[in-house]
Amino acid sequence: IGNTVLHILVLQPNKTFACHMYSLILSYDRNKEGPGSLELISNNEGLTPFKLAGVEGNTVMFQYLMQKRKHNLWSFGPLTTVLYDLTEIDSWAEDQSFLELIVSTKKREARQILDLTPVKELVSLKWNMYGRPYFCFLALFYVLYMVCFTMCCVYRPLKPRTGNKTSSRDNTIYVQKMLQESYMTYEDELRLVGELITVIGAVVILVLEIPDILRVGAAKYFGQTILGGPFHIIVITYACMILVTMVMRLTSTTGEVVPMSFALVLGWCNVMYFARGFQMLGPFTIMIQKMIFGDLMRFCWLMAVVILGFASAFYIIFQTENPENLGQFYNYPMSLFTTFELFLTIIDGPANYDVDLPFMYSVVYFAFAIIATLLMLNLLIAMMGDTHWRVAHERDELWRAQVVATTVMLERKLPRCLWPRSGICGREYGLGDRWYLRVEDRVDPSKHKMMRYTEAFKAQDRDNYDKGLEKPEINRDIPYKKDLSALSLSRRTSRTSSHRGWEILRRNT
Questions:
Q1: Does residue 497 carry a pLDDT above 70?
Q2: Ion transport domain spans which residues (predicted)?
Q3: Does 289-412 carry CATH code 3.50.4?
Q4: Structure letter (DSSP) for residue 79
Q5: Domain boundaries in the chain?
Q6: N or C, fewer C-beta in 10 Å, the chain?
């Protein structure tokens, strides 16, 4: 019951009252430090009161709980060294990481905790010492891996075509080799090495990604932009396309160019994931993801309807015409592709001035140009501009959340020998087996001195003003002229005190 009340207090809007009641309940806790402490009992979602305060973005309760966990090590003048307890904060030995909970929640207030002590210092320590070097090395390794895969695709086994052309539009001159003919020369053996590296990399990607999907859940794993959800979809699809290409190569099945081309596009697009390691490029990946999966996905439904309608009209109009004179609409798939190019203004309207075109072509193309080019494309630009404006206001905050998510991901993937635990063991200071983060806080004495003089100056002005208001009330029987003289005297006194206060403030500055 006590633990349930603690969880309820974390969710209270009156944060000051919640903090006082929280302390009152803990004062009756018999197991304050043991495993049965009320603060260490989780709810049905596996969240302790401390983690719940982070997920809900309750910064007041979070700072209150952190003040209870800190230990002042020493203080010398303006310098103060504090040890912060990293229990439930550090993701090194946590199955449900506090940092991962913060960046995966949908509440923006929760990301403000990343700027508070000691979370800010812990993330900065992890990222600068281990996260950034490992992430840059991983980005370089992935680019080299994609270069290897691209070279294997460029020099894939092909042979000249021996059969006759089936139609005048048939333009194929090379065909795919059979498996027995693909690995015969020294160049083929070099390509085989690159293909083995590509397949091994695809298997490693699936081995690393599938456990996280099962642990977190597909909806949360692929749906969170900060966690890199869309990029996880891209890299898993890329790995599947590589395995499909391998099966088609081993079985000598024609058509391997389809999964191979998909894999090339997806693999190189996944390079944008590594832009999150740089402050200049990281926010732009967030903008691209929000535009693609927000604005563009909604816009594609409207675009598909328009293209389908006008492509059908164009195909019907040119169905009775000679395709050699105007072949952009000679069959229905080509009509869809040509209409898509016209929609994006990639090509101009097809025309042949040597022959007479149908009259309805001009009418339909005029309506298509008005609807597609002038209306819908400008609508898309306006939608993307609005998304860019919204994301630009929180770009730094989103980038810090990306850094935290990347740090937690690397800490889970890498072996313990490559990523030691951050902080100081409490045994060195007689604080038990818990781990602590040492933070040095510097207090500026001149700033506090200035604040004291400013407060004294304000208090003096308030006293003089109150005295000036009290004098007319006391001397009510005095004539009206005396009241005015008293008020003017109090104002002169106030101005003199104000001048004296400003002089003291200037000298100390």
A1: no
A2: 139-393
A3: no
A4: E
A5: 5-115+423-446, 125-276, 289-412
A6: N
